[in-house]
Amino acid sequence: GAVVSQHPSWVICKSGTSVKIECRSLDFQATTMFWYRQFPKQSLMLMATSNEGSKATYEQGVEKDKFLINHASLTLSTLTVTSAHPEDSSFYICSARDRLAGEGTQYFGPGTRLTVL
Amino acid sequence: EDQVTQSPEALRLQEGESSSLNCSYTVSGLRGLFWYRQDPGKGPEFLFTLYSAGEEKEKERLKATLTKKESFLHITAPKPEDSATYLCAVQASGTYKYIFGTGTRLKVLA
After folding, report:
1. Which of A105, A113, A115 to probe by mutation at the B interface, max B CB count within 10 Å?
2. CA–CA distance, A70 with A97 (Å, rounded to integer)
3. What is the pLDDT of residues B13-66, one digit of tens each?
4. What is the pLDDT of residue A102?
5. Other CB atoms within 10 A of residue B7 CB
6. How far apart are CA B60 and CA B69, in angstroms?
């Protein structure tokens, strides 16, 4: 149980293009999902909290217009990196909280490796 | 300010050599403390959730304990497949956001 998937697992794109990453909870419903960014040999940095049916809450320093988040259903959240540049290259990981579990444990997806040329 | 510190930063053990990883935290009201294992290039894998001081949880060779200021992840008789980065995260009261520590990179040698 508590499986979270991400698609794609890796993507290479040209500078200036937009990339969409999907995060799905496969066997539970998630009213809250989280998006993280991880640099090599560093810990996870929270980018934003995604709430089903409402606007995402971004952490300080994260550009809302750069990283668009949509949480359209109880099992799907998407992160769109708009006008990507090489400095956006990173490992992006999502997590989801089971709304029926009554506690705060987050279950993580396998991550998406983004490389911007 | 809420903060999580993990030590050591890196640890090398011989197979079968038991040890402990530390996670110290300061938080305005603890909602929960969480341990994860992360392999290179993958997302964190959930291990344990602890809610109150004195609580302990076990899974195979791993045992997690919690006090009011820190948590320990004890690894008994580790095997090479236990090699990974172990992450600790805390949740403060009133939020489901995690505050992550920087992790402990564990290498178990055969």
Report:
1. A105
2. 16
3. 999 999 999 999 999 899 999 999 999 999 999 999 999 999 999 999 999 999
4. 67
5. 14
6. 25
CA–CA distance, B67 with A6 (Å, rounded to integer)? 35
End-to-end alpha carbon distance in chain A: 37
Angstrom distance (rounded) from CA A74 to CA A52: 6
Side chain identity, residue A65: D
- CA-to-CA separations, A33 to A71, A77, B27, in angstroms, rounded: 8, 7, 22
CB proximity A110 to B under 8 Å: yes
Q: Does A2 touch chain B (CB under 8 A)?
A: yes
Query: Rg of chain A's alpha carbons, rounded to an integer?
Result: 13
Note the pLDDT tens digit of each residue in A59-82. 999 999 999 999 988 999 999 999
Buried b / exposed e across A10-28, counting CB within 10 Å, b at 16+? ebebeeeeebebebbbeeb
Does residue A5 contact residue A24 with C-beta atoms inside 8 Å? yes
The CA distance from A33 to the nearest CA of chain B, in Å, is 10
